[in-house]
Amino acid sequence: MMKRTVLAAAAAAMLAALPAKAADYKVGILLPFSGVYAGLGAHIENGFMLGLKDFGGELGNNTVSVVRDDTEADPGASLAKAKKMVLSDKVDVLTGIVSSAVLGALRDFVHGSKTPLVVSNAGNDDATGERCSPYITRVSFSNSSITRVMGPWMAKQGIKTAYLMAPDYAAGRQMMDAFRATFEAAGGKIVGEAYPPLQGTKDYGPYISQAKASGAQALMTFFAGGAAISFVKQYKEFGAAKDLPLYGAGFLTSAAYVHVQGEAADGIIASLHYVPTIDTPENKRFQDGYKAAYEGKLGSEFAVAGYDAAHLIVKAIAAAGGDKAKFKGELAKVSFNGPRGPLRIDPATHNVIQNMYIFRNEFADGKVTQKVLATIEGVQDPVNGCKI
Ligand code: BEZ
Question: Best mutation site among 36, 74, 100 for ligand 1, i.e. most ligand atoms within 8 A of its Cβ?
Fold first, then answer.
C-alpha cells in the first residue's frame, strides 16, 4: 500500500514537472475591408494584433495563429465565409463582425456549430437578447446601450423635441428605438424620423432639410464609417447646426475619422463606450502602443474593441491551457480594466458591462478633441429574453 502511494506521488511530481498541455488556437477574423465600413475593419484588426502583442505573454506554451476574410457589410457573403473558416480552415474561435445585419445572419450557424464568436463591434441587440447563444460573447456594446443613456441626459438639458435619423437596418433602428424609449419616458417627444439606405446614400441634403422643417430642437442620429463622414460634412454645408443641434451615437465622430470631419464636428454631442481622452494607465498604454505601431494614428473605439477582443481571447486561453473544450466556457468569465475602463461579461446575456461616456467634440487649433460631460458607470442591458 505504502509502495503504491509513493509511486503515485512520484508520478504526480513527474506530471507537474512536464510543461502544461499546450495547443495552437486558430482565430478567424471576419471584418469589412471594403465597402461603407472598410475603415472600421482596419481599426479593429490593428487593435486585435496590438492586443495579441501586448497580452501574448499570458499565453504560456499555447500559440495563436490568425486567418482573415472580408465581410464587406454583406450578410450572405459573410455567412459563406464564416462557414469556410469553421469547416475548412478549422478555426477554434471567430472574431470581428462590424454590421448588425451580418451578426444576425451568422447567429444560427455559430450557435448550431458551437463555434465561439467574440464580437468586436456589431451591436445587434438580439444577439445578446432573444437570439443569444452560449457561444456568442460580445466585447464591444449593444446598440441600445449606446443611445438609451442619451434620452434622460438630453431631456435634462431642456430638450423637449427630437428628430431621429439613422441608416435603414438593424443597428439604425435599434439605436433610435432605444433613444426614443428613454427620451419619451423622460417627457420628450419625437416629432419625425428618417432612415436612409445604408449602402449608396450619397446625398443627405433632402433628409437634413426634412429634419430642419420638423421644427425639432435636436437631431439624434446614428451613422458610422464613410456614411458618418459624409453626413457630418453635409450637415455643416447646410448650416443646419444653428437651428437643429446635432447629437448621436458616438460613432458619428469616431476618433477613426473625426480628423477628416474637422471643424464640421465642432459642438456635436454624443455617447459612446470609449473616448481617446480617458486618463488611465491602461488607455495610455493602448494609445502609446497604437501610435507607435500605426504611423502616429489615434486609436478609436473600433481599435479598442479589437484590442480587448484579443485580451479576452488570450485570458480565456490562459485559463483553459491546451483544453479547447474548456476554452469555450472561459470566454464569458473574463474581466479586466482596459483602455475604456472596467469591463466584464454579463453571465446572463454574454454582453459586455461597461461605462458610457457622453462627450462634446471641440474644434481648436485645427484639431478635434472630446470633452467628457458625463460618465454613466457599469451600463448593463436587461436580459431581453436571453436564456443561456
Ligand atoms: C452595427 O451595425 O452594429 C454597427 C456598425 C457600425 C458602428 C456601430 C454599430
Answer: 100
